[in-house]
From TrEMBL:
Domain of life: Bacteria
Natural source organism: Metapseudomonas boanensis
Source organism phylogeny: Bacteria, Pseudomonadati, Pseudomonadota, Gammaproteobacteria, Pseudomonadales
Location, primary (coarse class): membrane
CDD domains found in the cross-reference section: TM_PBP2
Domain ABC transmembrane type-1: 92-271
Alphabetized UniProt keyword annotations: Cell membrane, Membrane, Transmembrane, Transmembrane helix, Transport
Cellular compartments annotated: Cell membrane
Spans traversing the lipid bilayer: 45-64, 71-89, 95-118, 139-166, 206-229
Membrane-protein topology: Multi-pass membrane protein
Protein known as: Proline/glycine betaine ABC transporter permease
Family in the record: Belongs to the binding-protein-dependent transport system permease family.
Length: 283
């Protein structure tokens, strides 16, 4: 047995910090939570009100524009049509709305931080340990303070998803910026380009394949959180999986699991196609 006199706990300090945060800034968090919830509900309502055939047409157009091939576009549309046939279309739209909002927040946070890390060794050194913790810490650990700040529902699910899914986008954006050829940057500098012109005119376009790969990984990791999100009040396909687990209904859980896989495959194929290097250099 480990000696009692050598043990200590940080639980009291963490609890005191979270309690102080809730007491002092609880109303601000609540207002932010209400605004975010309004945005999610509006997007979810729009997706659920849109005719299914129109959603499939939009997906088909996106898939064809990304891949420039008819067969993959038809395959993606056919898989999504299968989700509707299984009676899970409404749940699919709920999950899609939650994932789109979480991904948008991850992009707003992840790409600027990745650019900063790619252009500054000091920022990168500070971020790497934090990203390691975010990727390895079990999601249920940071769900506790998130639930205290925002309560049950879609908002804490979004924040838990963002915390879990944003690290790949930061890392791959950083990698893409650092992999830009030094000679290209020297040429841009020789032509008198400012730092902003170098960033938006040279670095970001050349780093786009890596950034798109990071976005792809972020979306995939966000989808992997839908079941965890359902445990704290978010609805959608994850809720169906959870109900299947609770009632030992294998068929119900399998149908919802297949629907999540289909959504992941559809988004994966589209984002991967948009991130191909040969596509980026197309005029």
């Amino acid at each position: 047995m480990f000696p009692e006199r050598l043990t200590f706990s940080i639980a009291h300090w963490v609890n005191a910090w979270v309690d102080a945060l809730v007491t002092q800034h609880g109303m601000a968090f609540r207002r932010f939570s209400d605004s975010l919830l309004w945005a999610v509900v509006q997007l979810e309502g729009l997706l659920r009100a849109t005719p299914w055939w129109l959603v499939l047409l939009v997906v088909a157009a996106l898939a064809w524009h990304a891949t420039r091939r008819v067969l993959p576009a038809l395959l993606i549309v056919g898989l999504l049509f299968l989700v509707g046939v299984m009676g899970l279309w409404d749940k699919l739209m709920q999950t899609l709305a939650l994932m789109l909002v979480a991904t948008a927040i991850a992009v707003v946070i992840g790409i600027p931080l990745g650019v900063l890390a790619g252009r500054s060794d000091r920022v990168r050194t500070m971020l790497l340990p934090l990203l390691d913790v975010m990727q390895t810490l079990p999601s249920f650990v940071y769900l506790i303070p998130v639930l205290m700040l925002f309560g049950l529902g879609k908002v804490p699910a979004i924040f838990a998803t963002v915390i879990y899914a944003v690290p790949p986008l930061i890392r791959l954006t950083d990698l893409g910026i650092r992999q830009v050829d030094r000679e290209v940057m020297e040429a841009a500098n020789a032509f008198g380009a400012s730092r902003w012109q170098q960033l938006f005119g040279v670095q970001l376009p050349l780093a786009l394949p890596s950034i798109m790969a990071g976005l792809n990984q972020t979306i995939m990791m966000a989808l992997s959180m839908v079941v965890v999100a359902s445990m704290i009040g978010a609805r959608g396909l994850g809720e169906e999986v959870l109900v299947g687990i609770q009632t030992l209904n294998v068929g119900k859980g399998l149908e919802a699991g297949l629907a999540i896989v289909i959504l992941a495959v559809a988004i994966d194929r589209i984002t991967q196609a948009y991130g191909r290097p040969e596509r980026v250099v197309d005029p």
